[in-house]
Amino acid sequence: MDEAVPPRSRKPAAPPAAPPAESAEAEASQTEALNERAVRLAQYYRGKIETVPKVPVRSLKDFSLWYTPGIAAVSREIEKDPSRSLDLTGRWNTIAILTDGSRVLGLGNIGPQAALPVMEGKALLFKYLGGVDAVALPVDVATPEALIDTALRIAPAFGGINLEDIASPKCFQVLEELQRRLPIPVWHDDQLGTAAATLAGLINALALTGRTISSTRTVLLGAGAANLVTVRLLIRMGHDPHSITVVDSRGILHAERADIDEMQLHNRWKYRVALETDGGGRRGTVADAMAGADVVLAASTPQPGTIRPEWVQSMAPRPIVFALANPLPEIWPADAHAAGAAIVATGRSDFPNQVNNSLIFPCVFRGVLDARARSIPDEVVIAAAQELAAVTDRISPDHLLPTMDEREVFPHVAAAVAQAAVKLGIARVKASRDEFYARARDLMARPAALAQALEASHLVAPMPDEPVPSRKSR
Amino acid sequence: MKRSTPLPKETHPENRTPAPVHVRRATESDVPALVPLLVRLKRLNEEFDPMLKVRPDVEGQAESILRSEIQNPNALVLAAEGTGPDRGKVIGVVRAAIRERPFYMPETEGIILDIYLLPLYRRHGAGQYLVEHTIGELKERGAGIVTVEFPAQNEIAGRFYAKCGFRPITAHHARIL
Known about the structure:
The complex is a heterodimer.
Chain A: H1 24-45, H2 63-66, H3 71-80, H4 85-88, E1 94-99, H5 111-130, E2 133-138, H6 144-154, E3 160-163, H7 170-181, E4 186-188, H8 189-208, E5 218-221, H9 225-236, E6 244-248, E7 251-252, H10 260-266, H11 268-277, H12 286-290, E8 295-298, H13 309-313, E9 320-323, H14 333-338, E10 343-346, H15 361-370, H16 378-391, H17 410-423, H18 433-456
Parallel strand pairs in A: 1-2, 1-3, 3-4, 5-6, 5-8, 8-9, 9-10
Antiparallel strand pairs in A: 6-7
Chain B: E1 22-25, H1 31-48, H2 58-71, E2 75-81, E3 90-100, E4 108-117, H3 126-140, E5 145-148, H4 155-163
Parallel strand pairs in B: 4-5
Antiparallel strand pairs in B: 1-2, 2-3, 3-4
């Protein structure tokens, strides 16, 4: 689920839940070709985003307005009232993508320089999907405190901060502290984005199988950033904590596990979940956890076989299986269906039901920036998930969530986020839902138009390795 | 024993109802249930400081020490049980001792050596209750001062005992040879 939006051309509407049985070899060579092409194109384009003016520059004379002497008056306005920086500069729509490079995609601790291409890609997504100007900012810091300090110091330039690819549990400490100390929204996509996308899919899956959240038994496989947040949000939405079983590499997480004291010292977020759920009344292994469960939400090892078909068979009738590891799911969808799963979701775009944070983060930032929210509390995250679930067109077991081609739903989610912020009293801009919707729709539509114009005029060069630049008109 | 909420003033074990844990003197038959709790505490101490590296025979040591202390009039071993449905389940252990202070007054010192409560039972002032109960027992045996030992790096314990009215009195430094 760290996976960004895949290129649209990758595969047309996939056959439902077919395991890519062709061969692992074919899959591997395809991946290799994609990787090679990505490096070639990176070399060709040398970066994915650039700064362009958003004001007319008819001649250098105009700089007396955009720069000195005129700009001094603008600075004085902000000096008198610092909140005006959100009106008089691009700050209202600009966020930082801040990372220490300590857990980049599946690559691990690769450091800030190596994280830059990923952050640039994320900035492109923020712009293209959310109309948000994002600055890629990998920083060289040795401690969580230094990362926090950096965020505090750069905040005056930004309307929000998106933390990216930071190792767990450090990411919890950094997010909590920044949310507490900064007057602008701070988000960590690997915690909140992934959890919200998962919840949105789950809400529809529960509805389709006639379940309610309060009477569901849920197993979470993996106790990383996303799953720990998913547990917190599930409980907030009314899930009984004692019907939640979290399993990590040492088995079921519970209050009397041998490593519980160590956990309190080194990962108090996981510790809290251990105490609150206490294994959902269970002890033992994955198999013990899954027997009779309604739902399994796996964000663990990217290896089919991590979830065994017989464990799915042991679940309650018509179970829900989310195998969200990337690039390989914990169980192939066809195997899960064969074992009785009623609904299967993965992190991949080539199967039905892709749980993708790209459905969430552009909308959340569009919404909080438009409402000028001071923060992003869990209620806002839940509002985003609920709205995404609600606006999904014609839900079915193979269509839990919108695909990336159904982005017309995005402004609705953004408006729901902005409205939730207003309701919670954390919005500096108060507007109606319709007004927020219209604003989000316009701002989210602009980047695609920009991209089209730039490509049409060849100011953005066509793909060098495609003979005919193929541009589908929308 | 970490993060318990501050206790209201009427914390004296006897006039606080309902008690968050049920505390009693340990007997020989409690030893099998107490050993793992004591071992958990020692392993926790190791997390704080490599100078507190736990011996491979820690279980056997814990068992024989508990057995002998239960018989020893100058030692005190308490077992904490849960309340309600957890009554009868041993969820905590206390080791304490009485010793004379040849040079200082008050002359009789009660020492709290180890206190461990399972995490799930640490809220609702259970830790403080356990400490106060232990102090009560030590007082009955003539203690005029009570001391407590814990790893210097364990700041959580430091804050907890400060809240219980303790302050540092002597320092205990070490050097590996």
